[in-house]
């Protein structure tokens, strides 16, 4: 069996929620006649989502959302099954955006993004296609930030469902997915021990919280840096050391950025770091670590297996995955665990169905995933796990919806 196909079948085995959705899609064909344009990390779990959408009647055109996250054998398996796939690992930026254009050449009526590159291209260079688009779905925090900025300026011209912002995405994908997969990729790439190490996590959103918690569980001494006073206080009460990055820079041995913002680790921080410090990013784009400064001002002393080493003064710093998304961009990066992506991609699949049915009735802007969809996915997963939960009695339901009952 082809290696890509073997990966996809392995993932399918541990994705019961998407399997159940696919069974219904096959019967009901809710996406019949719909062309879907996708820019996601093209690997095995994504392929299961793609095949679920195809099973629902969609014609899918897909490319990558990161130049280093594509798995070429999965691309080959998708192509062999009739999916239009334009992604390639280690592509140049020119090739990356050319593939985005190939997806848009198919004139999709629904977009599915991880980082908003498809939607950005639609609104800047491919506006001729805009009238054909019903709407889109966005997978990640960085993309939501960009979309909300567009919507605030009234530049977003069709509705987009914020898949990233559901409890099912935050509680599982961001916390457990990012936390486990980033640390797994770091350990597999460096062969370094986490236990006893001073780990600096920049940002204490859902992703940062997951990373900090799981690094501590492995025995690390964890420092958190933040700009939001509420999240900073939360990190403190969760038992982590709280510092500014300038205070943490001389102490840290492993730095992981999770902010979604730019210039989190800069020349001022590099100058304070220990010899041998390891730097990586678990946010979406490669803007959190100032790689440009290192390339210009430090001596590159070698690249191997996802590690770039830079020497300046009396120290050497090691950057993983070129500062890109570490859990997918290193050679051994497998991305989020399968069971986590079963939930996130189930939200994508049902949100895509929702957009196909309701897109013409939604106003341009960023829309929440309907709560019923999020709860449905949780219930399917609980049933697959053999777990049972209570339900409200009629009396309890009436009490919770009433304002008349007091003490």
The fold-level CATH name of the largest domain is Rossmann fold
Strand order of the largest sheet: 9-8-7-10-11-14-13-12
Please report the total strand number as a whole number: 15
User: What proportion strand?
Assistant: 15-25%
CATH class of the largest domain: Alpha Beta
Helix content: 40-55%
What would CATH call the architecture of the largest domain? 3-Layer(aba) Sandwich
The residue ranges in which pLDDT falls below 50 over 5 or more consecutive positions are none
Q: Determine Rg (CA atoms, Å).
A: 22 Å
EC number: 3.13.2.1
Domain S-adenosyl-L-homocysteine hydrolase NAD binding: 174-333
GO molecular function: adenosylhomocysteinase activity
InterPro entries: Adenosylhomocyst_ase-like_sf (IPR042172), Adenosylhomocysteinase-like (IPR000043), Ado_hCys_hydrolase_NAD-bd (IPR015878), NAD(P)-bd_dom_sf (IPR036291), S-Ado-L-homoCys_hydrolase_CS (IPR020082)
How would you explain this protein's 3D organization?
- The chain is an alpha/beta fold and 407 residues long.
- 45% of the residues lie in helices and 16% in strands.
- The protein has 17 helices and 15 strands.
- The strands form 2 sheets. The protein has an 8-stranded mixed sheet, sandwiched between helices.
- Helix 8 crosses helix 9 (206-217).
- The radius of gyration is 22 Å and the shape is globular.
- It starts with a helix and ends in a 7-residue tail after the last helix.
- The relative contact order is 0.13.
- The mean pLDDT is 96.
């Amino acid at each position: 069996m082809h290696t890509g196909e073997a990966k996809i079948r392995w993932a399918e085995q541990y994705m019961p929620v998407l399997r159940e959705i696919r069974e219904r899609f096959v019967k009901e064909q809710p996406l019949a006649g719909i062309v879907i344009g996708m820019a996601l990390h093209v690997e095995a779990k994504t392929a299961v989502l793609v095949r679920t959408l195809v099973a629902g009647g969609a014609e899918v055109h897909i490319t990558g959302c990161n130049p280093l996250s594509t798995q070429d054998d999965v691309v080959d398996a998708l192509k062999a099954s009739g999916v239009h796939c334009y992604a390639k690992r280690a592509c140049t930026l020119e090739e990356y955006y050319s593939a985005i254009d190939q997806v848009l050449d198919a004139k999709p009526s629904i977009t599915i993004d991880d980082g908003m590159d498809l939607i950005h291209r639609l609104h800047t260079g491919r506006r001729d296609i805009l009238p054909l688009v019903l709407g889109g779905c966005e997978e990640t925090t960085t993309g939501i930030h960009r979309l909300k900025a567009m919507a605030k300026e009234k530049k977003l011209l069709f509705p987009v469902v914020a898949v990233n912002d559901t409890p099912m995405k935050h509680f599982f994908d961001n916390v457990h997915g990012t936390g486990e997969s980033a640390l797994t990729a770091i350990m597999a790439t460096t062969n370094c021990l986490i236990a006893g190490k001073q780990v600096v996590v920049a940002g204490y959103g859902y992703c940062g919280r997951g990373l900090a918690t799981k690094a501590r569980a492995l025995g690390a001494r964890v420092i958190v840096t933040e700009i939001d006073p509420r999240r900073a206080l939360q990190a403190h009460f969760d038992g982590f050391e709280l510092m500014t990055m300038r205070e943490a820079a001389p102490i840290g041995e492993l730095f992981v950025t999770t902010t979604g913002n730019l210039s989190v680790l800069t020349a001022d921080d590099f100058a304070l770091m220990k010899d041998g410090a390891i730097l990586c990013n678990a946010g979406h784009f490669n803007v959190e670590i100032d790689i440009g400064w290192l390339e210009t001002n430090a001596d590159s002393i070698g690249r191997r297996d996802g590690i770039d080493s830079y020497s300046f003064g009396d120290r050497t710093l090691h950057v993983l995955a070129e500062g890109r998304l570490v859990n997918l961009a290193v050679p051994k990066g497998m991305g989020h665990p399968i069971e986590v992506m079963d939930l996130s991609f189930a939200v994508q699949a049902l949100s895509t169905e929702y957009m196909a049915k309701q897109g013409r009735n939604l106003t341009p802007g960023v829309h929440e995933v309907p709560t019923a969809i999020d709860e449905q996915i949780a219930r399917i997963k609980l049933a697959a796990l053999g777990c049972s939960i209570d339900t409200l009695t009629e009396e309890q339901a009436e009490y919770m919806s009433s304002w008349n009952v007091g003490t």
